[in-house]
Amino acid sequence: MKTLKVPVAEAKRRFSAYVSGSAHAGRRVIITKRGQPVAALVNLEDLQSLEQASCGGGLAEVARHWPADAAFSRAVDRIYAERQREAAGRDVSL
Fold first, then answer.
1. For the chain: N or C, fewer Cβ within 10 A?
2. Is residue 94 part of a domain?
3. Does a structural domain hold residue 72?
4. Cα 17 to chain center, whole Å?
């Protein structure tokens, strides 16, 4: 998925095109002001995933909504195993 970074003035000039790209092509637009990110334009599916994830489920909740991907699953398993090794008695359960 392509992410664009555009200044607010550019976002104003091409707003309709950016909305269309976000809605139909899944493109994300980061809007910047003085070079700093201040807002984002995402499609509704991405927004719904973000809202569900913000309900306190963390990475595990976000990952539940992503399509199955063996490489991603292996990466999560590696991270979890590493956290367990480094935990030294701390609770690192998901």
1. N
2. no
3. yes
4. 22
- Amino acid type, 9: A
CB 28 within 8 A of CB 41: yes
Q: Say what the pTM is.
A: 0.54
The number of C-alpha atoms within 13 Å of 42 and in the hemisphere containing its C-beta is: 11
On whether both 37 and 23 belong to a single domain, the answer is yes
Q: What is the mean pLDDT of the chain?
A: 80
Q: What is the pLDDT of residues 31-40, one digit of tens each?
A: 999 999 999 9
6 close to 30: Cβ distance less than 8 angstroms: yes
d(CA 31, CA 6): 5
The greatest distance separating any two alpha carbons of the chain, rounded to the nearest whole angstrom, comes to 55
User: Containing domain of residue 10, as a range?
Assistant: 1-42
Number of domains in the chain: 2
Quickly tell me which residue has 């499609």 as its tokens. Answer: 43
